[in-house]
Q: What sequence folds into this?
């Protein structure tokens, strides 16, 4: 079976760009596409397209992707966030630019989406009703998703805050959000709850998604962080070709040596069973996490990559570089308050700097 997944770059509506096509982990002949319509100009036997839109290696917090099959366009985890305060610093404007860009990409992806999946109710995975200035607003999702089907995590095993967010989201969308756990419909299947990281940890549980089309299988494993065996067992049982998951939170000092070793064991176990394992999100919040990814990749014939690698884009670990960016480009006092009030024209104020920075 030949698996062909495309890696798309979003550009201005009229622009035609070259993309790389992944054939069993290798870059094959380039293909020309027009991103605005997502229409392939050259008829290729693409059965499924996977695009990663938001992740730490792409400059923001999240794990949002779009999976396009012959008859479905599935947006998984339409959310984006920036660490509100890290190392005593609010997000750098460079990060805010990346956040605005990602929010635009998610909005674009939601146009014409048939299905929207929400793996759990953390603000980087869904549009919160009380979104801060760096998150995706629920109004955009409500406007664009009037006819899409929603597939959402149940709330029985979630924290008070996640339950509150789920109810608020349902109210804002004006619909009941159906519990998808354990269900299958057409190309989609959803897991029973699996731990958000460690079993019994504070994050509660998440729901994983499987998409199958013409024998090709993609799994979005959300925030499992390679920290529990239950999720890995389920993913392997699903027999995927490509998996997108949060990697271990190497940036956390609380992650013990034992937990790191176990995460490595699970990663190698999973990498053996798939063509491409994409690890991002918690893993890519630090340069040490990136080094861990490079190390694992060297052990696995480069089957283990981050979201940016998969998309054929430059890695852009802005969260890991926040302090550095403040040193490079100091931020005026009061800038964040002005941005929150809508008084900042981000691109024109920072255009010369943006030019030099070249986000993504
Ligand atoms: Zn997350």
A:
């Amino acid at each position: 079976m030949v698996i062909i997944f495309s890696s798309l770059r979003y550009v201005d509506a009229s622009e035609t760009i070259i993309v790389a096509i992944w054939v069993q982990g290798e870059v094959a002949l380039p293909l020309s596409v027009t991103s605005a319509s997502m229409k392939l100009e050259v008829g290729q036997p693409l059965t499924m397209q996977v695009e990663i839109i938001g992740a730490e290696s792409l400059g923001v917090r999240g794990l949002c992707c779009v999976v396009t099959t012959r008859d479905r366009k599935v947006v998984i985890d339409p959310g984006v966030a920036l660490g509100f305060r890290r190392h005593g610093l609010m997000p750098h404007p460079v990060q805010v630019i990346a956040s605005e860009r990602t929010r635009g990409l998610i909005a674009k992806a939601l146009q014409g989406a048939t299905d929207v999946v929400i793996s759990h109710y953390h603000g980087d995975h869904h549009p919160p009703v009380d979104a801060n200035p760096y998150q995706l607003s629920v109004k955009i999702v409500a406007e664009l998703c009037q006819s899409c089907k929603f597939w959402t995590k149940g709330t029985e095993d979630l924290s008070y805050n996640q339950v509150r967010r789920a109810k608020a989201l349902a109210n804002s969308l004006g619909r009941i959000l159906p519990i998808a756990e354990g269900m299958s419909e057409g190309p989609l299947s959803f897991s029973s709850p699996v731990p958000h990281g460690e079993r019994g940890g504070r994050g509660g549980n998440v729901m994983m998604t499987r998409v199958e089309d013409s024998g090709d299988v993609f799994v979005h494993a959300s925030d499992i962080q390679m920290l529990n065996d239950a999720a890995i067992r389920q993913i392997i049982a699903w027999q995927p070709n490509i998996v997108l998951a949060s990697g271990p939170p190497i940036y956390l000092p609380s992650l013990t040596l034992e937990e790191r070793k176990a995460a490595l064991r699970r990663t190698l176990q999973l990498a053996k069973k798939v063509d491409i394992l994409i690890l991002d999100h918690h893993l890519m919040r630090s340069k040490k996490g990136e080094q861990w990814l490079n190390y694992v990749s060297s052990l696995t014939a480069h089957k283990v990559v981050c979201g940016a690698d998969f998309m054929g884009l430059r890695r852009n670990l802005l969260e890991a570089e926040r302090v550095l960016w403040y040193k490079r480009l100091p931020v005026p006092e009061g800038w964040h308050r002005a941005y929150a009030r809508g008084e900042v024209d981000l691109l024109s104020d920072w255009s010369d700097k943006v030019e030099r920075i070249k986000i993504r």
About this structure: The chain has a mean pLDDT of 86. The chain has eleven helices and 19 strands.
